[in-house]
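Lecture 7, part B: from sequences to assemblies.

Below are the input chains for today's worked example.
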Amino acid sequence: GQQVMQIPQYQHVQEGEDFTTYCNSSTTLSNIQWYKQRPGGHPVFLIQLVKSGEVKKQKRLTFQFGEAKKNSSLHITATQTTDVGTYFCAGPTAYGQNFVFGPGTRLSVLP
Amino acid sequence: SAVISQKPSRDICQRGTSLTIQCQVDSQVTMMFWYRQQPGQSLTLIATANQGSEATYESGFVIDKFPISRPNLTFSTLTVSNMSPEDSSIYLCSVVHREDFGYTFGSGTRLTVV
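Predicted structure of the full complex, as structure tokens:
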């Protein structure tokens, strides 16, 4: 079946350092979504990427969709303690109504 | 985006009993989704609930264990039946935005089975 993988599983950074998480799918995706889940909270939708090679920015967050539409990345510039949480990517299933979530990357930011 | 009210927020239950989780949305939505998230893990889809029809269950989840109701376009319930400690998890309902197709999640129900 379809698999969505993410690396790294964990990342510890010093506040102010950059952070990147990578998402890879076993199949070509029509789109990809990113979510953030704060400790003790629920996932919150960040963004959806649709086009091959697409790059979108949200303040210090940069999202990229690969040319082959099988991978994506989330880059955070100059991390802050408010960036702490787990970042999930999610890709649609073959029949498109549901999404498969990756295992997530847990980010810790040391002040 | 939609606002979802999910309750209870947490519960501790005895094995062999059942718990019903409620999810109320502030707008009408066609599909509602029920997810399970085990501690420190990712989200796994249990089933998709459509109003007026049987829920569609994912592999590994069955209606007898996780019956779902969807009486109207703003409400759904998930029951965890005949619970065992392995059912201890966070259960989340979600709906899809109209505008940008992302999921909005409820705040989750943290279930502990003892």
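Note for the exam: Chain B touches chain A at residues 1, 31, 33, 41-45, 48, 58, 92, 97, 100-108 (CB under 8 Å). Keep this in mind when comparing with the next example.
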